Amino acid sequence: MSLAKEYKINGIHLDFKQTDNNKQITHKKELLAKIRKKQQKNKKTKTGQHLTEDGSKIKKLKRQVEKVQAEKSALLLKNQKQEGTIKKLEQQQHQFNKKLAAIKTKKEEKIKQLISRIDVQTAQVEKVKKTSLAC
């Protein structure tokens, strides 16, 4: 059974044996302390950087989402206005079509009346011609 203490950090093995002299022990302790400091520093900076980077990414994405939502609501409002305008125009078109149909039927009726008047007058003229020729 050895009285050696073993430390394994980032794949580095450090053994403290009884046979090591004081300089070697202090050197190994210093190395161990440096490695621990480096690991702690790396942990702090990595997690800190990730947190701040992730936080800024999240904020950026939130701003983008808010911007897109604002654009969406503006487009929906614009769409509603355009749909209202379309409905009004369709109603106007329907009214114009009704008026146009009414005007067409009135014209057709007037034309029929004129034709019937012309036919009546032509018949009267023919009657007068026959009576005048017969006399």
Q: Within the largest sheet, what's the order of strands?
A: 1-2
Structural class: mainly alpha
User: How far apart are the termini?
Assistant: 163 Å
- Listing every helix as H and every strand as E from the N terminus to the C terminus, the arrangement reads EEH
Question: What descriptors fit this protein?
Answer:
mainly alpha, 84% helix, two-stranded antiparallel ribbon, 135 residues
Provide a descriptive summary of the structure in words.
This protein has 135 residues and is mostly helical. It has 1 helix and 2 strands. The protein has a two-stranded antiparallel sheet with strand order 1-2. The radius of gyration is 52 Å and the shape is rod-shaped. The model has no long low-confidence stretch (mean pLDDT 82).
List the helices and strands and how they pair.
Elements: E1 5-9, E2 12-16, H1 22-134
Antiparallel strand pairs: 1-2
Q: TL;DR?
A:
The chain is mainly alpha-helical. Helix content is 84%, strand content 7%. It is built from 1 helix and 2 strands, in the order ββα.
